[in-house]
Design goal:
Strand 2 and strand 3 form a beta hairpin. The longest helix has 33 residues. The protein is flat, with a radius of gyration of 25 Å. The protein is mainly alpha-helical and 182 residues long. Strands 4-1-5 form a three-stranded antiparallel sheet, covered by helices on one side. The protein has a two-stranded antiparallel ribbon with strand order 2-3. Helices cover 51% and strands 10% of the residues.
Length: 182
C-alpha cells in the first residue's frame, strides 16, 4: 500500500488537475494506517523493526495529509474560477463532502448570464424536500417516494415521515392521517 500511496501522492502533487483515485482508496488507506498503528503498538519500541514501522507510518500519514490537502485546494480552485469540477475523478466520499458545493459554478453562471441579459433569475437553495409525518390506518406496501427513496411497507398505526407529495395522496385516499408535530 505504501508504494501505491507514494505514486498517487506524487502524481497529485505534480499535476494541475484532480487525479482519479482507485475505488475504495480512502477505505484502503484508513485500514492500512489502522493496521500499522496496531502492529506498532505490539512491537518493542527499541527494535529496528519498530523504528522502521514508525517511520513508514509517519511518512504515510504525511503523504495522506498532503494528498487530501492538494485535492481540496484543486477542487476549491476549480470552483473559484467557475470551472466545472469533473465529478468522475472525485471519490464517493469527496462527492458527499462537496455535494452542496458542486452545483455552485453552474448555478452562478446561469445567474450571471441572466443578469447580463437584464433578467433576474430566481435564486433558490437546493433545500431538502418537505416531509409530512403520517400515521397509517391501513397496511401499505413498500413504495418509492417522490424523492426516489424507498419507504415502507407500513402496518396500521405505523408512523413515518414521507415527502409531502406522497403524504398528501395517502391522506386523500384515507389510508393515513397527518400527525400534528406541534
Amino acid at each position: 500500500m505504501y508504494d501505491e500511496l507514494y505514486e498517487l501522492w506524487k502524481t497529485e502533487k505534480e499535476t494541475l488537475d484532480i487525479q482519479r483515485l482507485p475505488k475504495n482508496f480512502y477505505a484502503k488507506v484508513a485500514a492500512y494506517i489502522k493496521k500499522m498503528n496496531e502492529e506498532n503498538r505490539m512491537l518493542d519500541k527499541k527494535t529496528a523493526k519498530a523504528k522502521l514501522l514508525d517511520n513508514e507510518l509517519q511518512h504515510a500519514m504525511v503523504m495522506v495529509s498532503e494528498l487530501l490537502q492538494c485535492r481540496y485546494e484543486k477542487f476549491l480552485k476549480n470552483v473559484l474560477v467557475r470551472e466545472n469540477v469533473v465529478r468522475d475523478v472525485l471519490t464517493d466520499e469527496e462527492k458527499k463532502l462537496y455535494g452542496d458545493i458542486l452545483p455552485l459554478p453552474e448555478a452562478y453562471q446561469v445567474f450571471s448570464k441572466g443578469i447580463l441579459r437584464g433578467q433576474l433569475s430566481k435564486v433558490e437553495k437546493g433545500e431538502k424536500q418537505a416531509v409530512t409525518v403520517l400515521r397509517f390506518i391501513q397496511e401499505i406496501p413498500a413504495l418509492i417516494g417522490s424523492d426516489l427513496k424507498m419507504y415502507g411497507p407500513f402496518a396500521p398505526e405505523d408512523i413515518a415521515a414521507l415527502p409531502h407529495e406522497n403524504a398528501r395522496i395517502f391522506i386523500k385516499q384515507g389510508v393515513a392521517v397527518e400527525v400534528d408535530s406541534k
